[in-house]
Amino acid sequence: MANKGTLVIGIIVLIILIFGGYFLFIGDSVNVYIDGENVTSQTIVSPFAGVDTNRLNKEICDYTFQSMNNTTGNAKDLQQGILRICLGYGLDNVKVKIDSSIGENKIPIVYHVEGNSMYPTLNDGQTVTVEKTKNIKVGNIVVANSPEYGRIIKRVSQIKGDQVYLTSDNTDTTQEYRNGVLYETKGITTWVNTTDIYGVVIDH
What we know:
The protein has 204 residues and is α+β, with helices and mostly antiparallel strands. Helix content is 27%, strand content 36%. The strands form 3 sheets. The protein has a 7-stranded antiparallel beta sheet with strand order 4-5-12-6-7-8-11, with no helix packed on it. Strands 2-1-3 form a 3-stranded mixed beta sheet, with helices on one face. A two-stranded antiparallel sheet has the order 9-10.
C-alpha cells in the first residue's frame, strides 16, 4: 500500500510540475505572423481555459487584416487590440508576439502599382512591399489615401508639419483629344495629412 500511495503522490507531483511549469515558463501566448498578404495566428493557452482556439485565431487574423488595411495604428496598437480580443475570451494575462517577413513588431503590406505615374522607378503592375509607419522623410516613396485621388503611391517631396506633399516620378505630360477637346495629362501632385499615410515602400 505504501508503494501505491507513493506512486499516486508521485503522479500528482508530476502533474503539478507539468502545469506549474506551463504557467511559469510558457503561459498563455499569441504568436502572429504577417508576410504582407497573409496572416497566421497561433495561440497557446491552458487546457483548463476552455477556449475555442480556432475561433480565437480567426478573430485575431480578421482583426490583423483590418489593421493592415487602414491608415491608422501600428504594431503596438495591433498588439493592444489582440489583447482586448483575448480578454473577451477570459484570457487576461497573454503574451502577444508580432512577427513578420520584415522583422519583429513590424507590419508589412504588399501593394500592386497601377499606372505609370511613378515610372521609371515603379512600373504598372509591379508589386511593392510597404512597411506600415508614419515615420517618413523627404525622398521616401509612400502609399497614401488621398481624399482627392483615393489610394496612391507617390514620392514625398515636402513635409510641413502634418502636411505631406506627394509627387509623381514621371513628369511627362501627355496630350489627347476627346470629342474635339484637347486634354493634357500629367502625374499627380497633391498634399495629404500624415494620418493619410499607410506606410513607406521598402522593397520594389
